[in-house]
Amino acid sequence: MRYVKNWAALDSGLSQKPWFAPRAATTVVTYSFHTERNLPAPSELFYQSDRTKVLTGHQQDLVRGAMDRFEALGNLVFVETARDAAINILGVEGSDWGGWSSYPTYRGTLVLESMSMGTILHEIGHSLGFKHPFEDEVRLRPELDTKDMTIMSYTGFSDMLGPLDEVALRKFYGRPGQTEEWEIESQGRRVVILGGRDEDSILGARSRNELHGKGGDDRLFGHTERDRLHGGAGDDRLKGMEGRDVLSGGKGDDTLFGMSGNDRLTGGRGEDLFVFRQGEGTDRITDFKPGADRIEIRNGASEIDDLSMRQRGEDVVIRFGDGPYWKTRIIVEDSTLEEMRQEDVFLF
């Protein structure tokens, strides 16, 4: 056991921002309030209670206000959706606990018996990856383990985030981003974000995302489901992550990473780079321009002779990778073997 006097005592090792996302990326966190139609039974929850309930409009506003406090201090944006969000919120009665919440997972639950601001902030903290300062191997020094230092403490009373919470939030998610120009809309489980005129760096929610970079050299990251990423003008960098994604670079010299899942990649105007690794499924390039665009193979092949290429109708199918589970297949539409075997097409 190790005692510290800083934010490390709050680090659960989990957060809504996965390891692959850069610090500069604004993390989109979805949340929803349970309705009578999807309210779970008390037996489905982690802790015992007499009954579950839907939060009133006033109580929902309290939760939204608490989320605003986190947004003001860290590089994240909360977006309310209809259902199946990263954080799904309900109330209970007859529990021995003021509230509880799961650490970030694909779907998380936040439960409130008490509607005090201190409890709401505490439980949102857990949903963002904050742990209690008195648990696990790394702990806060006892004289600092108070709510004056962190809302995650059990000692004392506070309805505000403490100084350690602010530092931890920035360590996990980065400093607040420039999101004033963004337009954000929720369409069922899909989150639609239109970025600003300058450089945007957006990490999509754990749901279906439609991200538009618009102007500037943007960095757009999908997440776990079927995402649509549109770079717009500028030299953009798009990463689909998991799921069957659709990536469109738009104008400019863009870099597109389909990553896992069967993705559809369109570079658009400019000299674009399509990047692949072994084991990423089957991706399709819709507009490869010989002499302008290039394909980079990061692993699984070190030279063109390591690639299997064949003509299939009007398309070229490229395969590479070791073993049955590490294969990647690239379908380059409207191309020929002669074009794809030119020495300036591939980078290794």
Task: Explain what the structure shows.
This protein is α/β, with parallel strands linked by helices and about 350 residues long. The protein has two domains: about 1-175, 3-Layer(aba) Sandwich (Collagenase (Catalytic Domain)), CATH 3.40.390.10; about 185-345, no CATH class. Helix content is about 10%, strand content about 30%. It contains four helices and 25 strands. The chain has helices at about 55-75, 115-125, 165-175, 335-340, and strands at about 1-5, 25-35, 50-55, 75-80, 85-95, 100, 110, 140, 185, 190-195, 200-205, 210, 220, 230, 235-240, 245-250, 255, 265, 275, 280-285, 295, 310, 315-320, 330, 345. Strands 2, 3, 4, 5, 6, 7, 11, 13, 15, 17, 19, 21 and 25 form a 13-stranded mixed sheet that branches. A ten-stranded mixed sheet has the order 9-10-12-14-16-18-20-24-23-22, with no helix packed on it. A hairpin with a 2-residue loop joins strand 22 and strand 23. Helix 1 (about 55-75) packs across helix 2. The chain is elongated and about 70 Å long. The two termini are about 45 Å apart. The mean pLDDT is about 95.
